[in-house]
Amino acid sequence: MHCNLINGEWRGGQPAIVNRNPSDLDDVVGDYASASAADMRDAVAAARATFPAWSRSTPQQRADILDAAGNEILARKIELGTLLAREEGKTLPEAIGEVARAGQIFKFFAGEALRQQGELLDSVRPGVEVLISREPVGVVGLITPWNFPIAIPAWKSAPALAFGNCVVMKPAELVPGSAWALADILQRAGLPAGVFNLVMGSGRVLGPALLDAGIDALSFTGSQATGERLAADCAARGIKVQLEMGGKNPLLIADDAQLEQAVECAINGAFYSTGQRCTASSRIIVCHGIHDAFVARLAERTAALRVGHALDSASQIGPVASEAQLAGNLSYVDKGLADGASLLCGGERLTLATRGYYQSPALFAGCTPQMAISREEIFGPVAAVLRADDYEHALALANDTPFGLAAGICTQSLALATHFRRHAEAGMVMVNLPTAGVDYHVPFGGRKGSSHGPREQGRYAAEFYTTVKTSYLGL
């Protein structure tokens, strides 16, 4: 059994989490220990006890450990990518790409550990100088989702450790394997006992226990409903909080868009990774002049996508991650039909050579802004096409959402691209690119109901994982 990591020791727990391959339900990836509320308290206590020493460790010590972890992740990217594909269902090339990104994140933050900056200012009073510096927050709880089982744990834990915090990570119960592999790598890279703790199991048990145990900050990626509850709980306890809660991201196709480029952006953004990305473009807003040609070509490309086993080199789309997620996807197909949208292709559960959670990508046209498939995050391979009269109408439709994570436009006009970049109500804007797909060295996050608190990734990660201290020096 793969155990929890608490205070530098591997600790078992029951019941076992049976990690099954969504491409082949007869393939058991492994058994993983479930932690109890008492285990969570022990993990937080261990992090608290070791924080004074770790927070005062040298930047070089932290950089060396993170760099070693990044190097091992990159050296094992095929092995770890295969593990990720087996437990989450991404196609193998996507899974290997995610692992490589995790390694690059650790190496980037190894550098950030050495690049911490401050400010020295003259006071308004004579003979006084002001030093502004950053210090680690303390014990940070990390709750990570199932759709990026190593990249998101990496982009949360790497900056937390780089800036001198201690970590208690609770990965999604559906995909413990990649998080366990990351914990094992960090343990062997030389982290002192208690600096990084991995606590696996039920979110209903471990989430409240994490907050009750007395952490200083919480970074969460998951559903909007859970995020809102955590925000309220953290506010009541005075815990610093960072939330990423999804999106309903628009891809605007202007009349002057290059057709094949626009279709490729839509296919990638809506259906790759089985649509299980918070940045997926599940609302495709198409201007009247290009609408019919675009929709015809998009339907042709969507129907031709090859759904199959994640490890099959012929597969373009892997399985849905779980039975519950598949049921939710299919229920949205039913809602779309009931609301009067036209199902152009897909939307069926598929029976393939191995038992798995397979679904054909669903493409709807004739959608209106009020339909559930146009407004609610589905988190699966279901895309809704809305017709717009012109660019201004399309922009209004793009912004007509309670979410604001990512937004994209396909156009050959610099003027339209510039206008959209400035007026799209989203934290990230893509021009002639899929809405899904971001770099690890720049800030990630959104507006409105998508995000709360400081941005993740890049130099902006310091805003969450550090606190500012102002010191006055009398000369």
Describe the structure.
The protein has 475 residues and is an alpha/beta fold. The chain has 2 domains: 4-245 and 450-474, Aldehyde Dehydrogenase, Chain A, domain 1 (3-Layer(aba) Sandwich); 250-431, Aldehyde Dehydrogenase, Chain A, domain 2, CATH 3.40.309.10. The protein is built from 15 helices and 24 strands. The mean pLDDT is 97. It holds the Pfam family Aldedh.
In spatial order, strands of the major sheet run 14-17-18-13-12-20-21
The main β sheet shows up as: 7 strands, mixed
CATH third-level topology of the largest domain: Aldehyde Dehydrogenase, Chain A, domain 1
The helical percent reads: 40-55%
> What value does the average pLDDT take?
97
How many domains would you count in the coordinates?
A: 2
Straight-line distance between termini: 60 Å
What CATH first level of the largest domain would be assigned? Answer: Alpha Beta
- Secondary-structure-derived class: alpha/beta
CATH architecture of the largest domain: 3-Layer(aba) Sandwich
Number of continuous helical runs:
15
Count the strands? 24
CATH homologous superfamily descriptor of the largest domain:
Aldehyde Dehydrogenase, Chain A, domain 1
Describe the secondary-structure layout.
Layout: E1 4-6, E2 9-11, E3 17-21, E4 24-32, H1 37-55, H2 59-75, H3 77-88, H4 92-113, E5 119-122, E6 128-136, E7 139-143, H5 151-162, E8 166-170, H6 176-189, E9 196-198, H7 203-212, E10 217-221, H8 224-237, E11 240-244, E12 250-253, H9 259-271, E13 283-287, H10 288-303, H11 323-338, E14 342-345, E15 349-350, E16 358-359, E17 362-365, H12 372-375, E18 382-388, H13 391-399, E19 403-404, E20 406-410, H14 414-423, E21 428-431, E22 447-448, E23 451-452, H15 462-465, E24 466-474
Parallel strand pairs: 7-8, 7-10, 8-9, 10-11, 12-13, 12-20, 13-18, 17-18, 20-21
Antiparallel strand pairs: 1-2, 3-4, 5-6, 6-24, 11-23, 14-17, 15-16, 19-22
Active site: 244
Protein name: Aldehyde dehydrogenase family protein
Domain Aldehyde dehydrogenase: 16-470
